[in-house]
Predict the 3D structure of the following.
Amino acid sequence: MYNELMPSRNSVKQFQEEGLYHVYNRGVGKAPIFLDEQDYTAFMRRLELMLLAEREAAQSQHNKQRIRIGNYSGRVRLVAFCLMPNHFHLMLWQTDQTAITEFMRTLCTSYGMYFNRKYDRVGPVFQGRFKAILVDSDTYSTHLSRYIHCNPMDLGLDVYTYRYSSLQYYFAPLYPKWLAPQFLENQFSSKAEYHRFVNDLSDMQTTEEQYGLD
């Protein structure tokens, strides 16, 4: 589920304060950016360190792995995500106009350095600058979340057990502090209602076309 045609609206000229965005990118030349479990974990670890409160991030860094990376807690919130073999989708909310740009530059640079070092390669890992679309309505955000969470279906996998998606956390008793599903949870009366919404794919093609997700 990666748009082969990049419509002009996918290139944000100026970000909004307190704006919600669909942010995504893929490997250069459509090449894989995650080759094994360690790669997925490395990307998610960076998300965690960048989004946890500063003191918690420092503790997490000490316990797991020393990664020199900026902290964006309070400036960027991660609402939903899915990592696929050659691309990723993030739904991000920011407080100020430059937060997402700085966040993505840091994330992609850090992961790119890790990837090149691990596989003894040089050059860019991602295909140019990340793409971003403003999510300007509640309806858009709910359908986008389903689209993101259903990406593993392209691999013939169960979306509820896929390890590299935020959907698993939406139905857990507690979600990690670096994830902010409440941006979507507030639009549903219960987790069961969201579960039914994710399972109802009857309008998926229509909404993908409407929001340029196909």
Remarks:
- The chain has one domain: 15-210.
- DSSP finds eight helices and four strands in the chain.
- Helices lie at 37-51, 54-63, 99-118, 138-149, 167-170, 182-185, 191-199, 204-210.
- Strands lie at 19-26, 76-84, 87-94, 131-134.
